[in-house]
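Anyone have tokens for Glycosyltransferase family 2 protein? Sequence:
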Amino acid sequence: MDVSIVIINYNSTDYLLKCLDSIFRFTKEISFEVIIVDNASKVFDEKFILSKYQGIRIIKNEQNVGFAKANNQGFNLANGKYTLFLNNDTILIENTIKNVFDFAEKYNHDVFVGCQLLNSDYSKQESVVEFPNVWNGFTENFFLYKIFPQSKIFNKYYQNEIELTNPIEVDVIKGAFMFCSSESIRKLNGFDERFFFYSEETDLCFRFKKNGGKIYFLPKEKLIHFGGVSTDNNLWFKFKNQTIGKIQFYQKHFNGFRFIAILIIHFCGLFLRGILFSIIGLLTFNKSVFLKGFYFFKQLFVYPKNLFCES
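Reply: yep, here.
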């Protein structure tokens, strides 16, 4: 088996079906299997999916176990030389998986590979990012990345702002499309299940590179990623878990002064955004913007228990 495709679904079956249609339409010249892990969706027609598509296995969880654990559940069934962790709100528009497979084969297999994510209007979406550190935490929280979008110094997302034509080595590929050596994932013991939702891919990439792995971004390989379909209807769930994920990454990989500094910067950024969004929301009578301001303030009181003390 060349590639095992692991897809997590949570209350987004319509998007899942579109994703599956695109996989079976565009993926040619390689052998693949699809493993779906459903995180206790309210509506999920397992029989329909199994009758419509061949080569699919399904795990149905009785509760939402989180993104990291669900991915590990799917990976534990994987038979492929490579495993593609693919979001259910993605749509392939070309034979991307085969092209990425060919690239990985040329680089001695032990690689992670990401591709260019596109919005529904085919505009570019952020697809790669640098690892968190104190400096780029400062530049992000105080909006320097917005002022200097193409600066490597001031914008940890700068690789998304410049025109790229050739594969480049990067720090983090977004979890919407993570093409990985299955053997490497086994050596890493998969995703760290202490991360529930957000930052789990950053942690996985960090551990992989720390062990000498190479992570590549292929700008010519593209797919559509709608983004946020499982969380946009519950904005506080999204905001809260983004903060929890960030802080958990700091707890696991930072210590001493670096940990204190990045934490202070993080909370200063939340406070600043709370003020700005609240003022803009009031001045424009925009309820959704004002609500975001409220949620930024609310995040100031979110601090997860440190689960990494013995890591």
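The CA atoms of residues 70 and 101 lie 23 Å apart.
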